[in-house]
Amino acid sequence: MPIVLGGGLSGLSAAYYLSKRYIQPVTVVEASKRLGGWVKSEPDPEKGFIFEAGPRTIRPKGPAAANTLELLEDLGLENEIQPIYPHHPAARVRMIYARNRLHVLPSSLGGVMKQTSLFKEPLINSVFHDLKAPRSSQLLDDEPIYDFVSRRFGNDVAQYAISPMICGICAGDAKEISVRFLMNDLFEKEQKYGGVIKGMLLGSLFGKRKSPDESLKKAQNSNLAKRAKEEGWSIYSLKGGLEQFPRALAGKLVENNVEIKTNAECKKLKFYNDRAVVNISGNEHETDHVISALPSHKLANLVQQEHPSLACMLRSIPYVTVAVVNVQYDLCDLLEDEAFGFLVPPSENLPILGVIFDSCCFNMNRKTVLTVMMGGRWFHEHFGLKPSTKDILKTALKHLKNILKIEETPSKTAVRILEDCIPQYTVGHTARVENIRNYIERNGLPLAVCGAAYDGVGVNDVILSARRTVESLTQC
Ligand SMILES: Cc1cc2nc3c(=O)[nH]c(=O)nc-3n(C[C@H](O)[C@H](O)[C@H](O)COP(=O)(O)OP(=O)(O)OC[C@H]3O[C@@H](n4cnc5c(N)ncnc54)[C@H](O)[C@@H]3O)c2cc1C
Fold it and tell me: Which family does it belong to (predicted)?
């Protein structure tokens, strides 16, 4: 009778995969009154637009993405999907704000060959840089993604392409984030062949082709995954907002007789004789297995007393706080450029990480809707320890005015400070997660961990993390 801790996307997915394997009864325990974790959509039914407080788009490419699409199909959400097609400006145009102006990132081969305003040289030169640059002076286990990219492709690419991209992925600092975790394939190519391009060429001639993951082959052949590939989706969301996803998942769980407890905080975990005792809001429940889909620092608090060294390892995964500011203007044509939005390299030393042009991506009923992401790794440096939402809104609007030249007053705004919302995959993350899972196995704890803390921050990653965790449990 497994108990799943956490009713975010990862916990709900874990319960779904358990119930799909006819493992019953399953209980999901969620501390707050709502399900979905960071996925939170606030539609304005009167004006016909949506504010997303957390994730808003999902990537459709790759095996993990196919797994999500298979799940969406199983939930009957295929007709709710809103894809962005390759010709759409939100698919083609991504911008960087640097040196007091917006620059469009090259998105075609032609663009890569040309001189652009952002980089000192055409991007193609970074390929030659990689071909000429020696491999790292010694074999490395891991290093910051910034150092790797700077060594292989030049400092400009590290500063103006990779650093803002890392802000967009995990609100983090490329000078701290692990290349082994986020770009393992490229990193291995350098370590093995002495360069990324060399590695690609030699690998395709002499290397063994990685066979597609057996357990994901079926997902890759699902109707929705095939449709996404055929139609070339760039990214997608759901009509009515991404929160439709956890809602539909929860509905499916109820159908499959999974018990879902909300307002039920797990306060402590104890283990004895292959069993776990879960303290839920003061009441003890015994179970033969616990799957934790909680942020790692929250799980640390639960095991602190009995397993302080496990708690210490869990706490060594840092988290950052992001302020999300949604703004809506009644006018529809306030943006000079149609694009997905823009990101800001940390070297600009601004409090904003980037701005998403929601109304360019999806239909917002002829309103201009934007989301400003702020803080992240530098939240406290810019905003101090206890910033007010009023100050945060003021800062966001000031930057929208400076950068996008928007002088209008928004009709509606929402400010949320999402405390410790994004885990940071700092150098050594892969080894850290391995140590956590090894500790659990060595000590024979009836516990498994999944979710954003361990296996990747994207929606696709947390769902696949849940699936793999359930598969590894049911194989034993
Ligand atoms: C601002 C923001 C924007 C993002 N944008 C994107 C995007 O566009 N695309 C994308 O793919 N990904 C995006 N992500 C990442 C993605 O949303 C997350 O990685 C994912 O939602 C995490 O899911 P999870 O289930 O692992 O964790 P969470 O969502 O953190 O769920 C954990 C759950 O556990 C509960 N909980 C905590 N403590 C306890 C306890 N003691 N007992 C019981 N329950 C407890 C919490 O209340 C929560 O519901 C974004 C994230 C953020 C924060």
Answer: Belongs to the protoporphyrinogen/coproporphyrinogen oxidase family. Protoporphyrinogen oxidase subfamily.
